[in-house]
Design a protein that fits this description.
globular; 0% strand
Length: 174
């Protein structure tokens, strides 16, 4: 059903997607307990729907909850924590809350590098998003090396002709 919710989201049917995910959160919490990673995943996806609708307060509450649950897990998943931290940073960036977003982006990137290693294709989104934050603030000298790193990750992982290399997912760099 999570996939159905994502299809609804992609088609702009946010209310249907949100209702389905709210049910999934409730059911998974009742069945598995709030500490289960599946619950955190559904909470995060519901927050994404709220973010898309610019319901930022609701998204923020859910992202904080998701991140807190992931950090408090008996066996914390560093990759999941990195992604949840990145999602919260992106929410702040979208609201122009750059001073709140930057430390979260840096933390998420650090966790991603620790978890996946410096050469992993998983780093693309983390590096790209920090570059976007700096670019939006006019901090081009800081954005450029990150944009180049994001480009290098894509070239290494997907080849030089991949669409992400061509700039439709962030700062294009020659």
């Amino acid at each position: 059903r999570n996939y159905v919710a994502e299809l609804d989201r992609l088609q702009g049917r946010y209310q249907e997607a949100a209702l389905l995910l709210e049910r999934l959160v409730e059911e998974a919490t009742a069945r598995l307990g709030e500490e289960h990673p599946q619950v955190h995943y559904f909470i995060n996806n519901l927050a994404g729907i709220f973010k898309d609708q610019e319901r930022f307060d609701e998204a923020q509450t859910l992202l904080h909850r998701s991140l807190a649950l992931r950090r408090a897990a008996s066996e914390p998943d560093t990759q999941a924590i990195a992604r949840a931290t990145l999602n919260l940073a992106e929410l702040y960036r979208l609201q122009g809350r750059y001073s709140d977003a930057e430390p979260l982006y840096l933390e998420a990137l650090d966790l991603a590098r620790q978890s996946w290693g410096g050469e992993s294709g998983e780093l693309f989104e983390f590096v790209k998003q920090l570059a976007v934050l700096y670019r939006e603030q006019g901090r081009f000298a800081e954005a450029e090396p990150l944009a180049r790193e994001a480009r290098d990750v894509i070239v290494r992982e997907l080849g030089p002709d991949h669409r992400k290399r061509q700039g439709d997912h962030g700062p294009a760099v020659p």
